[in-house]
Each structure stands twice: as C-alpha cells, then as structure tokens.
Specification:
Shape: extended
Strand content: under 5%
Subcellular location: Membrane
InterPro entries: GPCAT
GO molecular function: acyltransferase activity
Helix content: over 70%
Number of strands: 0
Membrane topology: Multi-pass membrane protein
Protein name: Glycerophosphocholine acyltransferase 1
Radius of gyration: 35 Å
Order of helices and strands: HHHHHHHHHHHHHHHH
Number of helices: 16
Distance between the termini: 117 Å
C-alpha cells in the first residue's frame, strides 16, 4: 500500500510537470496566484477587523467602567450621603443670590452670560437626578422649552423679533406664574428646589435685564437688536401688539405641545399608565390638585377627554398669564415689582418648608426626650418600690 501510494504521487508529479507545457498554463497559474493572494488579503482584512472590534470592545468596557465609577460617586453625593453636598450648596445659593443682585446693578451687560453658566451647572445635575429617579420626562416640560428659547434668543437669534416677544411673553407669563402653580420653594440647601426656582425665575429676570436695565444703551442696540427694534416699533404703534404676540407665541407653544405629546404622551404611554414614569399631568392630577372636586369629575371622563381638557386649560392658562405682559413690557418698575413678588412667594414657600419640616423634627426630638425622661422616672420609682419591699 505504501509503495503504491508513493508510485501514484510520482505519476501525479510527472503529469503536473507536463501541465507546464500547456500554452494556457501561465494564465491558469496567474489566476491561481491571484486567487491565493486575494484569499490571503481577505483573511488579513478579517483579522484586522477582528482586532479593531476587539480594541473597540475593550474601549467600550473601559468607558463603561469609568461611567459606572462616576455614577457610584454621583449617587453617593446626591442620594446616599447628600448632607455633605447640601452643606456646600447652601453657601453657593446665597452667593448666587448676592451675585445676581450685584450684576443687575453694576454689570447688567454680562447678566445673560451668568444665567447661561448657571443653566449649564444646574440642569445637568437635574437631568442626572431625574433620570436616576425615573422622573426625566419632566425635562420635556414647557419650562425647559422656554429656557431653551431664551438661550436661542441670547446666543443664536438676538435679532429675531418674534422669538424675542414670544420669549418675553412666555417667561413673564407661564414661567413666572408657575412658581405659584407648582409651589416652588427657595430652600437654599436643596439643589432640587433651587433648580426649580432657577428655571422659573432666572429667564424672566434675564429678559428683564436685557429689556429694561439695558434700555436705550449702545450695548442693547448692538448685542440685542430685536429688543431695541421691538421697543421702537411698540412706541411708534402705540402699545403692546397683543394679537401679533398671541399668534407667534401660540406657534412656538404649538410646536412644543405637538412634540411633547407625540414623544411622551403617545410613544411612552405604556410606561406612564403603569406608573413607571411620571409626567406633569400625572403629578398635578395625583398630587398637587388631587383633592379638587372639579378635577375629580373631569378625570372620571373617558379617555382621551381628560388629557384634551388638560391641554386646553394649559393653553388658556398661557393666554391669561401672558395678557398682562404689555404692562411688564411698558413699565420697568411694574416688571420689577412683579418679579420681586414672585421671588417673595418662592422665599415664603421656602420658609414654610424650613419651619414645618425642621420644626416638626425638633418637636419629635423633644417628645422623644420627654418620653425617655418619663421612662427613667418610672424606672427609678419601680426600683424604689422593690427596695422597700
């Protein structure tokens, strides 16, 4: 068998050599050579891609590991041991209140910059904490949308008159009055409550500075031409253009409303109905105005009527609150008094929180202390009785 296989291989080699005498042999060998080279290249490319995929996977693992470590640290700061951060945040809030007043009086031309810095300091913290507590759908609410409009006007479209007037109406309208509606409280140690006050009070304050504090200055003409032109047009036309403002503001409002209900109310309806996610509608109906008789009657209506009525009331609320904007636009003193009133409401709510919460805690401590003293007295009386016996 071995000798036969050796002979067969010899004949095969001989016939292989005879193939070289074929006139087409060079072409055939060239094709085979190219096929082998192509196969080698494919193998090489595949190995290179595999190596790149492995490197990419390693990089993803490293990034995820760093993100997990960062998440652990942030979770420790904001949830597990928030006391340390709150001790730092308390003086930070007081310093900001002082800085806001100082800039309004001495450096109003950089107030919008300060607002922007605070926005990008506080909102990422709000986004993280809300995401971790499954409340991140609140970030799609109108107040954040109006803050976005304010930033767009400041940094992208300072010459857009319709955007400016709509931003003025929404900030002095819905945002300012929301402090009362949502019962915002200026609790100076709480990043959550301070951020809520910030997103409702700072935009109208910033627009107030741009409109009134910088009134008729070269800086206003050059940096915010829409403000200067709007004031000139309104002066020439004899008053606040209510109908025009309602039209443009309604367009911006409609853009937000449609986007919100498509991406949140409709596409995330399963999570909302199951209670996995919370929205403004759910919070207002189940917490803020839970015990209102009229609201209970409206909520008993079949779907989608409660939501449609909520949209209608929200839009009417917007129209009513912005109807006074002509006063705030024409008179800087009236605008100042209005904003001061909103700030005082937030401060009063904050004082109520401190007194009710910490006062209640102090009362509980005193009650526990008194109970302990009573137990000690009772214990000593029992010991004396036993000694007498």
């Amino acid at each position: 068998m071995h000798e036969q296989s050796t002979a067969e291989r010899s004949f095969t080699n001989i016939f292989g050599l005879l193939d070289l005498l074929d006139p087409q042999a060079p072409e055939e060998f060239k094709k085979r050579y190219l096929a082998i080279q192509e196969a080698k290249q494919k193998i090489s490319d595949t190995l290179r891609e595999k190596k790149q995929d492995l490197k990419l996977d390693e990089l993803k693992i490293k990034v995820l590991d760093k993100l997990n470590k960062l998440d652990d640290k942030l979770s420790d700061v904001f949830f597990k041991r928030p006391g340390k951060f709150e001790k730092f945040f308390y003086p930070f809030t007081l310093l900001n209140i002082f800085t806001i007043g100082f800039l309004m009086g001495h450096k109003p031309e950089i107030f919008h910059i300060y607002y922007t810095i605070l926005f990008f300091l506080l909102i990422p913290i709000r986004a993280y904490t809300y995401y971790k507590t499954n409340n991140h759908y609140f970030l799609a609410d109108l107040c954040y949308y109006v803050n976005g409009m304010c930033l767009l006007f400041i940094w992208a479209f300072p010459n857009n008159i319709s955007l400016y007037l709509s931003t003025f109406a929404l900030t002095f309208g819905t945002l300012s009055w929301a402090v009362i509606t949502w019962k915002n409280s200026l609790v100076t140690h709480s990043v959550d409550k301070v951020t809520s006050c910030f997103i409702h009070i700072m935009p109208p304050l910033t627009i107030h500075v741009i409109t009134h504090v910088l009134d008729d200055t070269d800086f206003q003409r050059e940096r915010f031409p829409a403000v200067y032109l709007s004031k000139a047009n309104i002066t020439n036309n004899g008053g606040w253009p209510l109908k025009t403002n309602i039209f443009y503001t309604s367009l911006y409002y409609l853009l937000w409303q449609c986007s919100y209900h498509y991406f949140i109310t409709i596409r995330q309806s399963t999570k909302i109905q199951s209670g996995e996610r919370m929205t403004s509608f759910e919070y207002l109906t189940k917490h803020t105005f839970k015990n209102t008789p009229i609201l209970s009657t409206l909520l008993d209506l079949p779907d989608p009527y409660p939501m449609l009525l909520y949209i209608l009331f929200q839009y009417l609320y917007q129209l009513i609150t912005m109807s006074l904007c002509g006063i705030w636009f024409a008179d800087s003193h009236a605008a100042s008094i209005f904003l001061l009133s909103i700030f005082l409401v937030a401060s009063y709510n904050g004082a109520t929180y401190y007194i009710d919460y910490y006062g209640d805690q102090g009362l509980r401590k005193e009650i526990k202390k008194l109970q302990l003293e009573i137990r000690n007295i009772q214990g000593s009386d029992i010991e004396e009785d036993e000694a007498v016996r």
